[in-house]
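Input record (one chain):
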Amino acid sequence: MDTTVELKFYFAYTSPFTYLAYAPARALERSHRVRLRFIPHGVNIRKVYGDMTDRAHRDQLKVRYLYLDARRFAAERGLTILPPKKIYSARFAFYGGMCAEDQGLFHPYAERVFERFWKRELEVEDPAALTAILRETGADPAPFARYVADEESEAKPRLKACFAEADRDHVFGVPTFVIDGELFWGYDRMDWLVRKLDAMALRR
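The corresponding structure, as predicted from the sequence alone:
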């Protein structure tokens, strides 16, 4: 009998703190009786902080500081996070993740997308670049090509369903974990998440 509990992980490839949370989140499946469900979620950065070219000075300072923190956390773990030069859409990357997930290859795909995007080695809005990553993982990229060519047929409705689930869970940012109806937002809240899992007697 499967005695594991679902742990939702709302994520975005273009979120530095999601990148930081990704590996520790996966480790929770080894330390606790949980199964992670990775759910794409988009955050409108322009709406929150404004476009990069016309942000208020206070918002510029805030964003710079957030990236400074992200790079501090990353340095402790030997990861590279280079602030992007523009605001990117992760939509096509999400479609690629759907394609990889359906073929049991989500994690090889996600690892490459995260690492290369944050090293500025991946044009995350370029379907050809994402197709190349799918091929590297051994995935058949044909479904991804269909998603890009006709988003309305399958990919966009599937992504909208993820966003709708996020709304029901009252998610407002990434990374967000949801367990037993309780939210934990941010990489730096993961210690509280672990304590919650321990309180639920889920430690292996």
